[in-house]
Specification:
alpha/beta, five-stranded mixed beta sheet, four-stranded parallel beta sheet, 21 helices
C-alpha cells in the first residue's frame, strides 16, 4: 500500500501482514473443559482440577478479515455498490465495526445513528443522509424506521449467519465459503500491490483519502443534527498524528469501547485509532463497562466527563463506606497528594486496590466531549491513573488539541496537534483578556483532520469557514503558558447580565462539577440582574443519601418529584451552590436555583444522545420556573 493509505486499506494490510495478532476480544462461549483428576497413589490423596475458562477470547486479524469478507459478500448480494450510504443503528459490538469495515471496503459511506435515538431522529438521519441500507442489532431498533422509508433493513447477525458461532470457534478454524475465500485472495493481491481484474479489489485499491468514509451527525444540542462528512483522509490524518505525537502503543495494549460508536470521540479517537495500530478491542454498553473493566484489564479507556464523575463518585462512596481503621487509612490516603514515602504508602494500602477494580493496567486514559472539572482530573491522578483532557469536535475528526503523558497541564486541553493551524479571534468582551477569543482551525496538509463541510448545508458552510479556509469552532479559548490551550466556553452560550458583566455558562457548570447531588444544571442570566440556575437532581446520589438516613420514596410517588422537594436534598443542593460559588467571580455566582421535579434523560428530550443537557429546550419547558426566580 502507498503511504497515503486509508484506515480500511491499513486494516486489510494488518490482516495479511500480522494475521495471528489479536484484533478483537469477544465473550468466550467455547465448551467448558472437563475436570482432571490430579495426584493419587499410596501416599497422596487425589484431587480434582477444573481448568479455568477465560471470560473472553481473542479473534485474530485473519479471523476479523474472514468475518468482514463475509459481510462484503452479503452486501454485494444485496445490491450494495460503491458510493452507497449504509446506516448502523446499534450498541457497541464487534459486528458494528465489521459492518463498518465491509461498507468501506466496497467504497461505501457509513452513517452511524445513536442507538438510543427515537423513531423521528432515525427517520431524519436516514432521509437526510440518503442511506439506502440500515443495519440494527435488534428488531426493536429496526422498527424505529418509519413505514414510509424505502431503506433496506437488516439485522447485523444476518450477514454472518454462516460464522455466527465466532465466540465458540474462531472463523479461521472453520470451513467458510469459496466466495469468501476467493475474495480474501483478491484483497491480498491489492495489499501486496499486485494488479487484479477483480471489481471488488479494484474498488478497494481506488479508495483515496479524498473520498468520503462516513457521515457523523452532531448531537443536536442546539437544533437539528448536522451531517458532518468525514473523508478517509480526515480519519487517517487524525490516527497518524495521534499515534506519532500523543500516544505510543505496544503489542500489550488492549482497549475497551463502550461510548456509542455513533460519536466521533469513540469512532475515531477510540476505535479507529486502535484499528490503525492493530490494537485489540472489546466492546460493551455503558452499563456493562464497570463489569468488563476487571475482566478485560484494558490499557486504553476514553470517556466523557459524566463517566469519569460517576466513577469518582463510586470510588469515593466505597472509600467513605469503610469503618474503623480502614476508614482512617482511606481518609489519610486521599490527602497524600505530594510525592514521597507517604504517597507511596497510600498507594500500597489504598490506591492500588482502586486501580485493580478498573483492571489494574490503565495507562492511556482520556477525557473529552465536554469540559471536565480539575477536581476530577486531580482525583484520578492522585489514585495513580493519569487522566488526560483533550479537545475535538465531530468536525475535526475528534481530538486536535491534546494533553499527552509527557506534556500535561491540568486546567487546559493540551497543545495543538502538528497537523492543524489555529488562530484566535478576540471579541469585544475578550479584549481585556490576553490571548483570548474564538478558536478557528484549518488543516496544515491537504488531507488533515478538519472536515470540508456539512451535508447539504451550503449557507451553514459559508458561515463556518472564512476566506483563508479556517473553520470556526464556536468555542472561546485562551492560549496560556507554553502554548497550552484553555477552553473558556461556547461563544453562543455566553451571556451578559444587565450589569454589563459577561458570564460563561460553561465556567458555572464546571464549578458545580464536583457536586455529586447535581445531575445537570442550566445557568441563566442573559439581560437579567444576577445569575440563577435550573437544577436537575442526580437521582442515584439523592437515593443513596436518603437511604443512608432510612428514608425511601413513598409508594406511588414519583421519585424525582420527591427528591426535588425533600428538605435533605434541598439542603445538599444549597450547600453545593455555596461550594461552587467560591470558585467563581462575584458576578458569576449563582444567587438562586430552581430544583426541577424531573430526571433529565435522552428519552424525555432533555439530554442529547451524548448525555449533554439541552439547555435551550430546558429553558423553554421551564420558563415559568425561571421567571419565578427573579420575582421572589
Amino acid at each position: 500500500m502507498a503511504t497515503q493509505e486509508t484506515l480500511i486499506q491499513r486494516f486489510w494490510r494488518h490482516v495479511f501482514e500480522m494475521p495471528a495478532r489479536p484484533a478483537f476480544l469477544v465473550k468466550n462461549r467455547g465448551p467448558v473443559e472437563q475436570p482432571i483428576l490430579v495426584g493419587g497413589g499410596p501416599m497422596h490423596v487425589p484431587h480434582v482440577y477444573v481448568p479455568k475458562r477465560e471470560a473472553f477470547r481473542s479473534l485474530s486479524h485473519m479471523d476479523a478479515g474472514i468475518l468482514v469478507a463475509e459481510i462484503v459478500t452479503f452486501l454485494r448480494q444485496c445490491g450494495f455498490k460503491r458510493g452507497d450510504h449504509a446506516a448502523i443503528l446499534a450498541w457497541n459490538h464487534p459486528e458494528w465495526v465489521w459492518h463498518d469495515l465491509a461498507i468501506q471496503t466496497l467504497g461505501g459511506v457509513t452513517v452511524p445513528i445513536y442507538p438510543n435515538s427515537n423513531g423521528e431522529a432515525v427517520d431524519y438521519i436516514i432521509a437526510n443522509s440518503g442511506a439506502t441500507f440500515i443495519f440494527g442489532d435488534s428488531s426493536e431498533q429496526l422498527a424505529k424506521v418509519g413505514p414510509q422509508s424505502a431503506v433496506k433493513k437488516f439485522l447485523l447477525s444476518e450477514a454472518i449467519v454462516n460464522l455466527a458461532d465466532y465466540e465458540v470457534t474462531p472463523p479461521s478454524r472453520k470451513e467458510f465459503s469459496i466466495i469468501t475465500r476467493n475474495l480474501l485472495l483478491e484483497i491480498e493481491q491489492v495489499v501486496k500491490g499486485k494488479s487484479t481484474n477483480s471489481l471488488l479489489a479494484s474498488e478497494l485499491a481506488q479508495i483515496t483519502r479524498k473520498d468520503p468514509a462516513t457521515i457523523i451527525y452532531t448531537s443536536g444540542s442546539t437544533g437539528r443534527p448536522k451531517g458532518v462528512v468525514l473523508t478517509h483522509g480526515n480519519i487517517a490524518s487524525a490516527c497518524e498524528t495521534l499515534s506519532a505525537t500523543a500516544f505510543q502503543f505496544t503489542e500489550d495494549d488492549v482497549a475497551l469501547s463502550y461510548l456509542p460508536l455513533a460519536h466521533v470521540y469513540e469512532r475515531v479517537d477510540g476505535n479507529a485509532l486502535t484499528l490503525w495500530n492493530g490494537i485489540p478491542s472489546a466492546y460493551c454498553s455503558p452499563e456493562e463497562m464497570a463489569e468488563y473493566l476487571p475482566l478485560i484489564k484494558p490499557t486504553m479507556l476514553i470517556g466523557v466527563p459524566a463517566v469519569w464523575r460517576k466513577m469518582k463518585d463510586k470510588i469515593d462512596k466505597k472509600l467513605t463506606a469503610e469503618t474503623g481503621l480502614k476508614a482512617k487509612i482511606a481518609a489519610w490516603a486521599l490527602k497524600q497528594n505530594k510525592p514521597g514515602f507517604c504517597r507511596w504508602l497510600a498507594d500500597k494500602l489504598v490506591f492500588k486496590k482502586v486501580r485493580s477494580g478498573m483492571g489494574g493496567r490503565l495507562r492511556i486514559v482520556m477525557s473529552g466531549g465536554a469540559a471536565i472539572s480539575s477536581d476530577i482530573l486531580n482525583f484520578f491522578n492522585l489514585v495513580g491513573i493519569q487522566l488526560l483532557e483533550g479537545y475535538g469536535m465531530t468536525e475535526t475528526s475528534g481530538g486536535v488539541i491534546v494533553n499527552t503523558p509527557t506534556a500535561n497541564k491540568v486546567g487546559t486541553v493540551g497543545k495543538v496537534m502538528p497537523n492543524v493551524s489555529i488562530k484566535i479571534v478576540p471579541r469585544e468582551q475578550d479584549l481585556e483578556k490576553p490571548n483570548t477569543g474564538v478558536l478557528w482551525m484549518k488543516n496544515k496538509e491537504e488531507h488533515g483532520p478538519i472536515f470540508g463541510g456539512y451535508l447539504g448545508l451550503p449557507e451553514e458552510n459559508a458561515k463556518s469557514f472564512d476566506a483563508e479556509g479556517y473553520f470556526c469552532s464556536g468555542d472561546v479559548v485562551q492560549l496560556v503558558e507554553d502554548d497550552y490551550v484553555a477552553i473558556r466556553g461556547r461563544a453562543k452560550r455566553q451571556f451578559k447580565t444587565d450589569q454589563g458583566k459577561y458570564v460563561s455558562p460553561d465556567d458555572v457548570e464546571k464549578a458545580f462539577d464536583g457536586e455529586s447531588i447535581v445531575g445537570f444544571m442550566v445557568p441563566i442570566g442573559d439581560g437579567l440582574p444576577f445569575v440563577t440556575a435550573l437544577i436537575f437532581v442526580n437521582q442515584l446520589a439523592a437515593r443513596d443519601h436518603l437511604k443512608a438516613k432510612g428514608i425511601t420514596v413513598p409508594a406511588g410517588q414519583d421519585a424525582a418529584a420527591f427528591y426535588a422537594t425533600h428538605p435533605e436534598i434541598v439542603a445538599l443542593i444549597e450547600s453545593a451552590k455555596e461550594t461552587a460559588n467560591k470558585k467563581l467571580q462575584r458576578w458569576e455566582t449563582v444567587k438562586k436555583v430552581a430544583i426541577l421535579p424531573i430526571e433529565a434523560t435522552v428519552a424525555n428530550g432533555l439530554l442529547t444522545p451524548t448525555l449533554k443537557i439541552r439547555a435551550e429546550e430546558a429553558m423553554k419547558r421551564y420558563k415559568a420556573e425561571m421567571e419565578a426566580l427573579y420575582k421572589r
